[in-house]
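Weekly modeling sync, notes
Attendees: S.R. (lead), two postdocs, one rotation student

Agenda item 3: backlog of single-chain predictions. S.R. asked that every request posted to the team notebook include the full sequence so nobody has to chase files. The rotation student volunteered to paste the first one in as an example of the format we agreed on. Action items at the bottom.

Example entry:
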Amino acid sequence: MKKGLKKQIKEIQDYFRNKIVDGEYKVIAADDYTLTIAVTNFDEEYKFCLWTANEVSHFRLYEGMFNFVEFGFSEAEATLAFAKCEEARAQAWEEKVRPQKLKQLEKLQKELGISQYGEVK
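Predicted structure, as returned to the notebook:
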């Protein structure tokens, strides 16, 4: 029984590792250090927090977060997954952070009396 359970756990680890390496997830949150993602399997969503700071050499699941299963990445897997995470982070920034920053800039321009073209009103 023990051997069968270990095999099942490995299959689950491999399934989610491959989803992350292939970039098959949606981004929930991104910051300077981590990327929180969700992998969907049928109707269920499984969340993972990935440590993405310090370049690919430190890429891993962020320990102590809500990852329901732990696994590591080979160097090749980490390289692929890290690149996809960086793409996802850039996309998340474009969709979420950039509009907020533009609103802040517009507010500041209005307060300073500067047009969107840099002309003082």
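Discussion: group reviewed the output briefly. Residues 2-112 form one domain.
Action items: rotation student to repeat for the remaining queue; S.R. to check formatting next week.
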